[in-house]
Amino acid sequence: MTVVFVVTIALLTVAAGCAIYRAERGPSMLDRTVALDVFTTTIVGAIALEAAYARRATTIPILVVMSLVAFVGSVTVARFAAVEREEEGRIELPPAQGDVDAADDAGLAAAEAAVEPPEGGER
Amino acid sequence: MSIDWNGVADVVAAICMLLGAFLAFAAGIGIVRFPDLLARMHAATKPQVLGLILMLVAVGLRVHVWSVVGMLVLVVVFQLLTAPVAAHMVGRAGFRTGKVPHEDLVVDDLTDDQEAALAEEDVAEAAEEERPPSDASPSDTPSSDAPR
Question: What range defines the domain where residue A62 resides?
Fold first, then answer.
């Protein structure tokens, strides 16, 4: 039984990592919303896994709350999605830019800083 | 001969748990690998319904308490009600903000309807411009704002 739980934890961890990767990369707000939906579902799965492993029921109400919060979050973001200009999304660096790299890195850091707060607020 | 029903329930729970986690894993891979918004939404749906049901069945089989089973059913009902609504909202917003490549769509009724509505609007505007200006100017302001 322990082997099954270790395999399950590994699968869920990879899924959560992929979702976080897409939430960071995702060119538009809606891609990030979908990725965070998957992340929430993975968290629900992890909590359910823990409850099944320890045979205890104290964490089950969290599942109800998480499933509702995920719905409200994605609907809110989708409702207020606007047309994003190309440069507002993730800046994709072309490979091997040479001397322009430093300026682009500064722009990248600024773009990430601008993107970070709404993501934190969404969860 | 007596069957160990607890052991059977544990084995079924383990299988359900593995399948549910595999669906979550597949969604994670799909959401990274797929090229555009609608394909990613397609991948993201897998653990939201079937994967969640499988994992919660596993919890119900491991925890033998009826109140817990009631709450798990509640979670599944909420998810079945809200997942289509959220997916519809995201897909609609994606379509309206140009995240959906139109040349990939096999059936594209919404664009046809939008173009038809725009053409109708143009015809109506042309008809209004043909009227004498004394008649058009008072009736123009309310009627041109309302239908749009």
Answer: 2-85
Whole-angstrom CA distances from B102 to A1, B34, B36, B95, B127 are 49, 17, 12, 9, 32
Cα torsion B43, B47, B51, B55 to 10°: value is 160
* Of A93 and B143, more confident: A93
For residue A114, pLDDT beyond 70: no
Mark yes or no for CB contact B24/A4 under 8 Å.
no
**Closest-CA residue to A116 (of A32, A39, A43, A59):** A32
A94 in a domain, yes or no? no
Distances (CA, A) of B91 to A76, B42, B50, B122: 13, 10, 20, 28
Average pLDDT for chain B: 83
Q: How far is A123 from chain B (nearest CA, A)?
A: 16
CA–CA separation, A102 and B92 (whole Å): 38
Is residue A104 included in any domain, yes or no?
Answer: no
- For residue A81, the domain's CATH number is 1.10.287
CA distances from B82 to B48, B72, B79, B147 (A): 10, 15, 5, 32
**Which residues are within 8 A (CB) of B146 and not within 5 positions of it... i.e. 6 or more apart?**
none
Using a CB-CB distance cutoff of 8 angstroms, which residues of chain B are in contact with residue A21? Answer: 32
pTM above 0.80, yes or no: no
The separation between CA A56 and the C-alpha centre of its own chain, rounded to angstroms, equals 28
A48 touches chain B (CB under 8 A): yes
